[in-house]
Amino acid sequence: MDCIFSDLSYEELRCSALPRIGMQTAQSLAIREAHSATKAQAVELILTYKNDGNLERRQAIQWEAGSENVCLASTISPADPVPPKSAKKDVQHQQKQTLNSYFESLTSGCRRNVNNNSPNPLPMSERLQRNVAKLHEALVTGLSSIVDTWWTDEQAAFPQRMPLEPHEEDLLRWLHEQSQANNLRPFEDCQGHWRSDLLLPSDHPGTVAICEINARYSINAQLLAAYGYQIYEEMAWHLKEAASLQVLTRRRYVTSPLSLLATVDKSDDEQFVKSQLDLFDPKYPVHIVRDQYRTPFIEMFVSFAKQNGGVDATINKPTDPRLIKSKDSKAGYVLYCLSDRDCSDMVSTDGERLDRVYQTGLHLFQHELRSIPIDILRHLTLHCVNDMRSVPLIHDKRILGVLLQELDSLVGKNVLTAEQAAVLRHGVVPNINPGSPELNELIGPHI
């Protein structure tokens, strides 16, 4: 029973990103991968359903994974999945309305981004899941080593191969010093969320190729994905009652690099929420620093976290943080923030009510980060759950080009296995960086 259902259409999957995978649909449909000599994408659907209340009857059919979405409202029997193109227009319209209605209810009226979601789940084989798991494990291992040795590997000379803005380099050097002094958690413990954009190559079924990594923000579409799982479950529940169907899938999801792909025992929505809440320590309040970046995800997280996770989160502007001198702090200062809420460690200074900052999520554009005074920015980075080493390095599209260049070296250092290096060579879209030997080789004959 190894299949996933994606809430993105096949064309969306092939042409853009795969930010989340896995979708729960009906009640008892067990799916496992089938080996086919002619169709590499084929999966065998082992369909289980009740027959007039008697023993379960099993029927196997062939389904080409990723080739067709499934119209839940039109599918009466799991033995005969109905693709959207075969469904009546009024049924499709009603399914879209149902999806929107559920989203509006779950998000307290927030409809933004709902139209980007398909009401028709897409079967995907577990082979794809296994390949994604291997690829991300190798990706995180390789990139974490590069980040850890960014300033110390003189032979690799990473800063010269991927030069950053002066203020970014200054901040990274300071973070490196803080890490060396044990004032900052190791990078592997605070990477935050990495959301890789995945392409599905048409010439290599069952594989993916990473074209970029999004790593700036600690709060993203996790809650929308969780709500999506709940909605599909509800929509699938209304399949023919006599069939008493239930999809029993081995569901997996992609989240932070530390937990890569995790098997879900109950429901995907619970795991999506858990992976989001686990970034934060519920013992302390969360200060989300946001101004120009507008998204419904943050307000949804603040409300949900308080009601379900016991995480007390507030939204603050980048002009709200304050530094107060402290003899007890290794850095010499303690970070506070303007606040109007009551808490045990509230202080008043210069007529301002200040709340101590223990953990932050920065949702700021690059120019907003530059506008923050350097001393305050440095202290903010000490409390970030999305590590500031990820923002200028992992989020930079050039990092994949550097990774590909370093594969042989990482194998020689026993950071990667030869197999992992091969996985990355096939699973990362070729990147040619400015000033690289690859660029000279490409354009040299034409100059």
| Rg from Cα | 24 Å
Number of domains: 2
Strand order of the largest sheet: 4-3-2-8
Mean pLDDT: 74
N- and C-termini, Cα separation: 56 Å
Low-confidence stretches: 1-66, 240-267
Shape: flat
Strand content: 15-25%
Biggest sheet layout: 4 strands, mixed
Order of helices and strands: EHEEEHEHHHEEHEHEHEEEEEEHHHHHH
Question: How many alpha or pi helices?
Answer: 14
Overall number of strands:
15
Structural class: alpha+beta
State the share of residues found in helices, binned by percent: 25-40%
General description of the model:
This protein has helices at residues 10-15, 89-106, 126-148, 158-161, 166-180, 222-237, 268-277, 296-309, 366-371, 374-382, 390-394, 399-412, 418-427, 437-443; strands spanning 3-6, 28-33, 42-49, 57-64, 122-125, 195-199, 209-214, 246-248, 286-290, 313-316, 321-325, 333-338, 347-349, 352-356, 359-363. It has 447 residues and is an alpha+beta fold. The chain folds into two domains: 3-127 and 221-255, no CATH class; 131-219 and 277-394, no CATH class. Helix 6 runs antiparallel to helix 7 (268-277). The chain is flat, with a radius of gyration of 24 Å.
